[in-house]
Amino acid sequence: EQILIMGEAITCVAVLLLLVSGTPFLAGFAITDTDAHVVRYFDDAGVFTAVGNGEAGNKNGTGTGASFDTPTGLATGSDGEVYIADTGNGMIRVMSTEGKVTTLVSGLNDPTGLCLFGTELYVAETSNHRIISINIDSKKITVIAGGEEGYADGSVANARFCNPQGVAVGKDGTVYVADTVNHAVRQIKDGKVTTLAVSRETPDAPVQPRGILVQGSKLYVTDLFAQTILELDLSPVSYKDVLAGHWAEEYIVSASEFGITGGTGCGKTTLLKVIAGPEIPLDTRIAKERDLRIA
User: Which residues pair with 67 in a beta bridge?
Assistant: First the structure.
């Protein structure tokens, strides 16, 4: 199966890699080679080192004159520049189309997943258990949700995450989070955090979600443990026998999504489905989840 990325159809195996640490750049893609502390570039001509010298460091510069410490997430700006989560240094760096590296902000605690939405760069600040945004013009940092380790839905002030590593933003401004150690896919909308899927309750939900991407009405999530890509249908659910705006509509839709009732209309029958990689039984995923928490 193929997925359309920036107008190009690519295979699901490539998406698994790109969702975790890749982004469009020039005529190809940039991807972080985390353990080598560099950012690579690949196109039809091959694979090249774009920036970094192969050793952990913290230096701005051009090409191999720059250095990073365990870079992870990437995001592409409107002018073609690439924002880099320099995780080990607690920084967000910027790579120009000429390969010049500068620092946007520092002082973060293990930033990983990135998503640029307008002038706001959304960041999964993993070890602070929160999602933040950085205005790329003013460099102002805003806490979107979280800030303490745990697992709780609710208002953005009271919600809790555990080492989130992926973030994506829909066209309507809804923020989606790969809440990695909670084994959950979360949503931030209208000042509230809700859970869309969690491995111990939802069929096919990821054990180790990390990469996350919105494409139209579809949300794609990588499960690093299962080596799968999951697809979540975000399109609205409707029912022929429930009037739009009725006080019970919200509760009926929620019950259908979680399999409590199938309704009598055209609601969804599954929340998530595996579109690439092996399918792993629910009991196996739950056992693995316990192992991950113990570890």
Answer: 59
Q: Report the range of poorest mean pLDDT among 43-47, 250-254, 291-295.
A: 291-295
CA distances from 168 to 68, 92, 215 (A): 24, 17, 10
Among 213, 219, 203, smallest CA distance to 258 is for 203
Q: Are 168 and 213 in contact (CB under 8 A)?
A: yes
Contacts of 105 (CB under 8 A, 6+ apart): 91, 92, 134, 139, 141
Cα separation, 216 vs 213, in Å, equals 10
Phi-psi category of 290—alpha, beta or left, where left has phi over 0 and alpha has psi -120 to 50? alpha
pTM of the model: 0.81
Question: And the tokens for 73?
Answer: 């997430």
Question: CA–CA separation, 77 vs 67, rounded Å?
Answer: 21
Question: In the numeric block, which tokens belong to residue 116?
Answer: 């640029």
Burial 93-124 (b: 16+ CB within 10 A, else e): bbbeeebbbeebbeebebbbbbbbbeebbbbb
Q: How confident is the model over 176-188, as pLDDT tens digits?
A: 999 999 999 999 9
Average pLDDT over residues 49-70: 97
For 220-254, b/e burial (b = at least 16 CB within 10 A) is bbbbbbbebbbbbebeebebeebeeeeeeeeebbe
Rounded CA-CA distance 67/58 in Å is 5
Query: Quick check: 8 pLDDT over 70?
Result: no
pLDDT confidence tier of residue 30, bands split at 50, 70 and 90: very high
Higher pLDDT, 144 or 229: 144
Select from 85, 91, 82, 68 the least CA-distant residue to 25.
Answer: 82
Q: What is the pLDDT of residue 123?
A: 98
Cα atoms in the Cβ-side hemisphere of radius 13 Å centred on 239 = 22
CB 122 within 8 A of CB 175: yes
